[in-house]
Write a structure and sequence with these properties.
It contains 22 helices and no strands. The protein is mainly alpha-helical.
């Protein structure tokens, strides 16, 4: 049996296992391990397994993941989401659709601190959804705007998912983190535009809020949100000018948000430090497990020759490069409907990344592009994990169908952002090129 046939059988077993409901980490690791054993023998495969386990858990660069996660959990404990929502509401709430726009802007800023799409969606569902529904907002518009706003967390630095991409593709993590800043801001603006156009066409979806705030009240709200803005500025500026590495940036961010949480609760008891650390450890273990399994599977695909064969076939097609980009995008959007982001990157990057590099695309640009693709998949059915999170956190206020129903204008905005990012790659490459 040829190695490519073994690779095809292994890939088929992988997707069969996923469709059967087996944990992605488990099926990735099993297919990778048994595939390597069938290609190079048991002893050589065992040596490769030990190498992958040690390199993944012992690398200094990988420590950025738990630090960014810890920063996000401290940001939630500090109540920074509440501060941001209050600030944006006081400034934007009087517009038609202003609460939804405020939610998007607040989620963009909070997501930059938390780096968690699910965490951001959870926080703003609890904060913003009750207020929007009480003021007469349509359930679909309100819930869908929160679900899509959560995806901004992985675009604007810092982002654990971007770090995962950097690890799997051996790309510069610092450059990747900086590259997502401008596209993240542009995408946030496009989501706000989508809300405005939707309520302009159908005003009954979002009544105008009659609450008025004085300039002093608005400025006071900005002072509440100021600490988080300062933290984000410190991280982005420090990475940009080279003051610290991504790992050091994670440490600085975690330290500052920990301090804010202590100040907010007037002591360490309210931070629930043990619970926060345990939650960070659990999430880190899950991500590291996926990474280890993904690297095993990647080595299996490389040794089988399947990755090179598929890549050679795609790059050898007599079509324009943009058609390959469209094909890759459709693959990510389809698979993104069935699995979560880290698992999707782990499965696909061993094939798609070499193809895109052979076509001459920049690895940093592709990192931002593929993260945006994955996050659009995070709100599309049948999985749409952010939609499930919003529905679960709503306390029964909205149904899952309500969330999916309102997503159409936001998904279209996501597609438009993909086109803009393809036509203007400097949106992602401008800042990294000047680091």
């Amino acid at each position: 049996m040829s190695s490519i046939v073994i690779g095809l059988i292994g890939t088929g077993c992988l997707f069969a296992g996923i469709l059967a409901g087996i944990n992605v980490m488990v099926v990735l690791g099993l297919v990778g391990a048994f595939g390597l054993a069938s290609l190079v023998g048991f002893k050589a495969a065992t040596a490769l397994l030990s190498t992958v386990f040690f390199e993944t858990t012992n690398s200094f660069h990988f420590s950025v993941i738990p630090l960014f996660l810890l920063m996000g959990f401290f940001a939630m404990r500090a109540g920074l989401g509440e501060d941001l929502f209050e600030a944006t509401t006081r400034w934007m709430g009087n517009l038609r659709g202003g609460l939804a726009i405020s939610t998007t802007m607040g989620a963009a800023a909070f997501g930059a601190a938390s780096g968690s799409s699910v965490g951001t969606a959870t926080v703003f569902t609890k904060l913003a959804l009750p207020q929007m529904l009480e003021r007469g907002y349509d359930k679909s518009l309100a819930s869908a705007s929160i679900a899509i706003a959560g995806t901004l967390a992985v675009m604007i630095p810092p982002s654990a998912l971007v770090v995962v991409y950097g690890i799997l593709t051996d790309s510069s993590i610092g450059a990747l983190l900086i590259a997502g800043f401008i596209p993240g801001i542009v995408f946030a603006a496009m989501l706000c535009l989508a809300i405005w156009l939707t309520v302009l066409r159908r005003p009954e979806l979002a009544p105008v809020d009659t609450t008025r705030y004085t300039l002093r009240e608005k400025m006071a709200a900005l002072r509440l949100a100021g600490p988080l803005v300062l933290i984000i500025f410190c991280i982005v500026a420090g990475l940009y000018v080279g003051i610290f590495t991504p790992t050091e940036a994670g440490g600085v961010g975690a330290g500052l948000t920990f301090l804010l949480a202590i100040l907010r609760h007037r002591g360490i008891a309210g931070v629930r430090l043990g619970e926060t650390l345990l939650e960070t450890i659990r999430t880190t273990a899950m991500i590291f497990g996926i990474l280890i399994s993904a690297l095993l599977f990647s080595k299996f695909l490389a040794l089988s020759g399947l990755a090179n064969a598929v890549g050679g076939y795609l790059t050898g097609l007599d079509v324009a490069p943009w058609m390959i980009v469209v094909l890759v995008s459709l693959i990510y959007l389809a698979l993104g409907m069935m699995m979560d982001a880290p698992a999707l990157l782990a499965i696909t990057l061993p094939i798609t990344h070499p193809v895109m590099m052979d076509l001459g695309y920049d690895p940093i640009w592709f990192g931002v592009f593929v993260v945006l693709l994955v996050e659009i998949g995070a709100v599309t059915p049948p999985v749409g994990i952010n939609c499930f999170v919003v529905q679960a956190a709503s306390g029964g206020r909205v149904r899952l169908e309500d969330v999916f129903k309102g997503l159409v204008p936001f998904v279209l905005a996501g597609f438009a952002m993909l086109v803009i990012l393809y036509l203007f790659p400097q949106l992602a490459l401008f800042l990294p090129s000047r680091m």
